[in-house]
Amino acid sequence: MLDVLGVRDVIETRGLTKRYRGGQLAVDRLDLSVPAGSVFGFLGPNGSGKTTTIRMLMGLIEPTAGSASLLGRPMPRAARAVLPQVGALIEGPALYGYLSGRENLVRYDSADPTADPRTRRARVTEALDRVGLTAAAGKKAKAYSLGMKQRLGLASALLRPRRLLVLDEPTNGLDPQGMREIRTLIRELAADGTTVFLSSHLLDEIEQVCTHAAVMAQGRLITQGPVAELAAGTRGRLAVTTPDPGEAARVLKELGVTDVVVAEDRVSGELPTGGAEPVDPADLNAALVRAGVRVRAFGQERASLEDAFVALTGEGFDVAG
Ligand SMILES: Nc1ncnc2c1ncn2[C@@H]1O[C@H](COP(=O)(O)OP(=O)(O)OP(=O)(O)O)[C@@H](O)[C@H]1O
Ligand SMILES: [Mg+2]
Predict the structure, then answer these.
(1) What phi, psi does 250 have (nearest 5°)?
(2) Ligand 1: which residues within 6 Å by Cβ?
(3) Which of 57, 99, 158, 241 lies 20 to 30 Å (CA to CA) from residue 151?
């Protein structure tokens, strides 16, 4: 799919690297391709380099090496031409605490030389409404909760139509209802043709809203692609429902199934790997039946992005130092 202006990858990085002055290698030779029209999840545990990457994309910090382009234009060189078409929410939006939410947005909008002052009020009202801040619009920003500040930051990114939204942990600080609202909003924006790039350390959030994802660990890209393909590369656990769980567990172990877990009438485990021939689950089912195990249900659980992450990195989804 092409962007309205014919750009295929709205974000592209080649060998993008950031080493902070203290010596910390935060992003290590990143090659990222974000297709136009995608809702792209940038996934990684705390400290994996997401915010650092986003800061480089937006021209806020200089890469140590490598290059980045936004909407087909090199950053930071083309920042002045590109950034008006990109809405961004980056960790801790800068707000004037003594101004109300509405007044903060009016300020943001006034700072944009291409924004028509005559339609400012309407734009601000619309943006407040989209993020569910209408009722709290008159309250001073310093009295906002974390989630309200996050919504206000998002509203500032939505003041005008954008080709690309770059959102760093957009649901950070939101309650479950707020998270759902933001996810719905992201889907609506995507349906309007905006490419949305969002970072998150929440796997299920990415699975719920994203079409594509990239997985980061310790500054390095582990994998990227359509979400369905990332999870499909990983096999889900085998699950058997049976009134004979003990016998089923014994037979499955004998056939090479590992990590067998029995929970009441449900037996699950990892399909055997490593043999020359991949094991056909149908053969396992047949073997259970031959052994006299009464099988009520037999199947493979859908692999989650979390399974994929663990399979790819060999680790849990934890913070690396
Ligand atoms: N200004 C800085 N100076 C030195 N090191 C930094 C700086 N900012 C971040 N780092 C380090 O770079 C690494 C990546 O940090 P970054 O903020 O990009 O991670 P992140 O993926 O956004 O994490 P989180 O999920 O917690 O927001 C971390 O080890 C962090 O300590
Ligand atoms: Mg971050």
Answers:
(1) -65, -45
(2) 20, 22, 24, 26, 44, 46-52, 201
(3) 57
